[in-house]
Design a protein that fits this description.
- The structure is a single chain.
- The protein is mostly helical.
- It has a domain of about 40 residues.
- It has four helices and no strands.
- The protein is elongated and about 55 Å long.
- The termini are far apart.
């Protein structure tokens, strides 16, 4: 098992770029972002983080979506 730190992941990224391995670059970008804590949320409840955004129940959204597009007969 290999353990990486952000610096070693960047070195791997440089190798992937030289080799033209686009999929590996994408995977390494996500790993670097994770290692640097960019996906961490200080508040676990996103409703508190974004109070202006109100969640909608799926059933309500589904009914409204079908009401907007009536079935032709």
């Amino acid at each position: 098992m290999v353990t990486h730190i952000p610096g070693s992941l960047r070195a791997e990224m440089a190798n992937a770029v030289v080799q033209g391995d686009r999929l590996r670059c994408i995977r390494l970008q996500m790993l670097i972002a994770t290692a640097e804590g960019r996906y961490d949320f200080p508040t676990r409840n996103l409703n508190e983080e974004f109070p202006a955004v109100q969640a909608e129940r799926f059933a309500d959204w589904f009914v409204k979506s079908w009401e907007l597009h009536p079935v032709e007969q």
